[in-house]
Amino acid sequence: MQHGDIVLTYPNFSFDIKHCDSKTQARIGELKTPHGTIETPNYIFCGTKASVKNVSPCQLKEARTDIILANTYHLMLQPGADLIEKMGGLHKFMNWNGPMLTDSGGFQVFSLGEGTMANEIKGKSNKGYDNKSLLSISEEGCVFKSYFDGKTIKLTPEYAMEIQRKLGADLLMQFDECTPYHVDKEYTARSMEMSIRWGDRSLAEFKRHDNGAQAVYGIVQGGVYSDLRQYSAEYTKDRPFFGTAIGGCLGGSDQEMYDVVASSTPHIHPSRPVHFLGIGQIKDVFRFVRLGIDTFDCVIPTRLARHGTAFMKGVRGETINLKNAKYREDNTPLDESLDIPASRDFSKAYIHHLLKANELLATQILAQHNIATMNKLMREVREAIKSGTLDSLEREWLV
Amino acid sequence: MQHGDIVLTYPNFSFDIKHCDSKTQARIGELKTPHGTIETPNYIFCGTKASVKNVSPCQLKEARTDIILANTYHLMLQPGADLIEKMGGLHKFMNWNGPMLTDSGGFQVFSLGEGTMANEIKGKSNKGYDNKSLLSISEEGCVFKSYFDGKTIKLTPEYAMEIQRKLGADLLMQFDECTPYHVDKEYTARSMEMSIRWGDRSLAEFKRHDNGAQAVYGIVQGGVYSDLRQYSAEYTKDRPFFGTAIGGCLGGSDQEMYDVVASSTPHIHPSRPVHFLGIGQIKDVFRFVRLGIDTFDCVIPTRLARHGTAFMKGVRGETINLKNAKYREDNTPLDESLDIPASRDFSKAYIHHLLKANELLATQILAQHNIATMNKLMREVREAIKSGTLDSLEREWLV
């Protein structure tokens, strides 16, 4: 592997590992950014288009949220990075003054256009690039059609970093190709090698404008192939990334996903924060903190809310669906222990009614509840790692 | 006019007129209900289906809301009055512990089915009963088809009062026929007389179950015909209603609406609270407090929010539309003086972006802002009535 010759010091960022579990790779970290320090493991909530869907920044804080993300792909199309920069950057624009992450835009461009990313990343689609908006991929970058206004846009590693610089989040992602499920090993290998070159170009572009305000993560690719994952992980370790992200296709089953991560994490930089891109059900949190994952992100807390679904501690399948007729006369709240209005002040019967009546307030209530529940999960997971009781905590959450 | 022989005392309610304007009929009142006392003139926000659209009770309070209403028509169809009674009544069900009003259901049944009421009440439609869900009207009541599940439902004065009793709001409305615009005087007169008989039946049914927890308003009908309005007003004065509402068709122009109200108010009971049903733009508030209106209600604060529109003090036409391209780079908030996050913490540029990106948070922000603005209007109107400065306040709001 060719060594990079770029030096980056990230003077305003740090990641300190405070405690390691004796039986697993689980760990407690302190991730410092210019917008605050968070304890890890932690959950990063998706504010895709500079808004966590129907949850205001006040409500995020009330739900004890530490960190959120926004998507470069969506924001470059509308309202555009230049406008956000002119408005003072993403933090000011959306009125979130805590730590924030942006992705590179690659994931959405490659796997999805504007669509359902979860199926792709989890290998539930086997159509390869079934993406009419993606026009071409080359060494230089990729060309796609904007879902917003139909314009043709070229996204390169340099441009992805420029956009992220203008957006102004704390934590950035290198540009990479996110290969779909069921592509063969040869394609995956060539793609992973190109992502490595794109990673070096991302770092070079980042370095050119580095003013200490941001830090960049490298992304481990390699599909479901453990030797490719290992190679890609070693690359990220070798380069001056601040953190490491696990990206790309993770296989078609829980076991395959586990194996992919397990084949990556031993080879990544042991003292850098590790982010798991796009994954974050409750069961995932328990499985993957044990492999050393420090942060998770997933759209499901707010997406499930829009479908009437609430995350709950200690229920079969992690969630309940408030549309279910059995909640019609259920006078109990979602979770009084969360001590926020959404979870404490409304009965399940009322939320059931709001859903049947197509009232937007249902989404607002459920989204805030789901976020608060995930934050409670992460607090309890951190406590359990400190006290060595992760196994018993998992039995409390997942019955 | 035949005198009613029902006596109702409303021991837990009162309306005290604290101050009368020297030049107009404007007045300051104190309206006491079992769920609190509000100062009038005041604005009643629509929680149609037991939810003010995308605004939580906390957010209503933050916006300094004193009183809300819910619609009998919608709630009788879903989730049903029996369920709400079983859940402890509307206040508990929707977690609003302040004063609340319900209408009788008649307005929606007659003029609308599930549709745009504003056009009908303001005479902007001249189709008469263009309402496929209304099946028949007779002395007994009316029969209509539920928009929710297609069931045929008979609504009578007795049933309307039973439903409102089960819903459990503080202030109720008699059942009445709400005639559409452009029906002739003969039909309007016969309808108004039937509404009078329905009013007596409403009172009799109310009396049967009266436990002091609720109070009922009579409704002045009579279309655009001043002699009919006068007759109907005298009727409500003669009967033991707690308050008086101005209902029905109000004409096709601002002048006609003014004349209809002006021909009603001199004949209603002078010491009872007067509610103006379904009307509540800023200009309406200024015009009609001068005729002695004490409370207004209208869906527009939340409806306009869903269309990207914000009520503003001192702008031409009362509102601005944040979808307008001129707000794309406008870094100013909606109204810092309101001191709530919605009006203070987000730039117009951000709200413009949220609207373009179809983000629900835009609705949440604008709805809370519009409600807070209307509450600010009402506070300032009350101060101006006390200090005799209504004219100059109107010039500040309506430029």
Write the layout of secondary structure elements.
The structure is a homodimer.
Chain A: E1 14-20, E2 27-33, E3 36-40, E4 42-46, H1 57-62, E5 67-70, H2 72-77, H3 81-86, H4 90-94, E6 100-102, H5 106-111, H6 117-121, E7 134-137, E8 142-145, E9 152-155, H7 157-167, E10 171-173, H8 185-209, E11 215-220, H9 226-238, E12 243-246, H10 254-264, E13 274-276, H11 282-289, E14 295-298, H12 300-306, E15 309-311, E16 319-321, H13 341-344, H14 348-356, H15 361-387, H16 390-397
Parallel strand pairs in A: 4-5, 4-14, 5-6, 10-11, 11-12, 12-13, 13-14
Antiparallel strand pairs in A: 1-2, 2-3, 7-8, 8-9, 15-16
Helix pairs in contact in A: 7-8, 8-9, 9-10, 12-15, 14-15, 15-16
What does this structure look like?
- The structure is a homodimer of 399-residue chains.
- Chain A has 399 residues and is α/β, with parallel strands linked by helices.
- Chain A folds into two domains: 14-127 and 157-298, TIM Barrel, CATH 3.20.20.105; 304-390, no CATH class.
- Helix content of chain A is 39%, strand content 17%.
- The first copy, chain A, contains 16 helices and 16 strands.
- In chain A, the strands form four sheets. In chain A, strands 6-5-4-14-13-12-11-10 form an eight-stranded parallel sheet. Chain A has a three-stranded antiparallel sheet with strand order 1-2-3.
- In chain A, helix 12 (300-306) packs antiparallel against helix 15 and helix 15 packs antiparallel against helix 16 (390-397).
- Chain A is globular, with a radius of gyration of 20 Å.
